[in-house]
Design a protein that fits this description.
279 residues, mainly beta, Beta-galactosidase, Chain A, domain 5, 4-stranded antiparallel beta sheet, globular, TPQ, EC 1.4.3.-, Cu_amine_oxidase_C, Cu_amine_oxidase, copper
Length: 279
């Protein structure tokens, strides 16, 4: 088949038993340069965390034995070693303009620089880029990676609420790397208690040696099938290369000349082709 190629992945995983659960930390490195961090949870529902119908799900006979709903909150610290020199951060957002084109509504997108330490929240059509402005690919553009969140639940650490109050949740945060920034919460040392302190203490400090703190929560509403052991439930995100190379690394031989707008496609002049579904 024209253009067929075989991609590969390398998986690195560890298993840890914490309380009633077993957690699988898994990192999948794709041949396209992508990285997919995931945390899977299995094991048993806590036998000491049963409650009423308002706060849990009945998993016993009839309407009995309400296992408490709860959250699995995970923060990944990603210290970027991208390119030679400093890095910068951008946030991409796209939104409908209210106008229609000939075939579909018009959506406009833009990049907004994040120049200093900051927190951010997920939204439709939003992702973040970490760029190495001094390291260019063969097309002359800065190499970068994008951070995309999978389906997840935003969350706030209880300890963060106690320390900072109010609406203190975040989905992604950006700081500069510092040795005393070890844990996302419950940290010790001069950097502060956690990510929110790291950001507050670095107010006005230009980002250069970037660390991304990616927070992904899972709100677990127990079900009958969680007994026992429960099926693995996963939470994680995606790091995708964006301009790391001028073309994909495993490009098929017959497609290597496709870099930019093609003049011909499978032997035909592009100008004579009709858009699928068009007239």
């Amino acid at each position: 088949m024209l253009g067929q190629n075989q991609a590969g992945e390398w998986n690195l995983s560890t298993i840890s038993k914490v309380g009633w659960y077993e957690y699988i930390a898994q990192y999948t490195f794709g041949s396209d340069g992508s990285i997919k961090p995931l945390l899977g949870a299995t094991g048993d529902l806590s036998p000491v965390d049963y409650t009423d119908a308002k706060h849990g799900s009945a998993i016993g006979k009839g309407e009995s034995d309400h296992a408490a709903s709860h959250s699995h909150n995970v923060v990944w610290s990603v210290h970027w070693g991208l390119g030679n020199g400093t890095q910068k951060v951008e946030q991409y957002d796209a939104a409908p303009t209210g106008q229609n084109g000939s075939k579909s509504p018009i959506v406009e997108g833009k990049f907004t620089p994040i120049d200093t330490a900051a927190t951010a929240k997920k939204a439709d059509r939003r992702w973040w880029g970490v760029i190495a402005p001094d390291s260019l690919n063969d097309d002359g553009r800065p190499i970068s990676y994008e951070i995309k969140l999978a389906a997840s639940d935003s969350f706030t650490f209880v300890q963060d609420q106690h320390e900072h109050g109010g609406d203190t949740g975040y989905d992604v945060a950006f700081t500069n790397s510092k040795d005393c920034q070890v844990f996302a919460t419950g940290n010790r040392g001069s950097c502060g208690d956690g990510v929110l302190d790291y950001v507050a203490h670095a107010k006005g400090e230009a980002l250069s040696d970037v660390v991304s703190w990616v927070a992904v929560g899972f709100h677990h509403v127990p079900r009958d099938e969680d007994q026992s052991p429960m099926e693995l439930h996963w939470q994680g995100f995606y790091l995708g290369p964006r301009g790391l190379l001028a073309q994909r690394p495993d490009i098929p031989e017959e497609r290597k000349d496709l870099n930019g707008k093609p003049t011909h496609w499978e032997g035909e002049d592009v100008g004579s082709l009709v858009e699928p579904g068009g007239q």
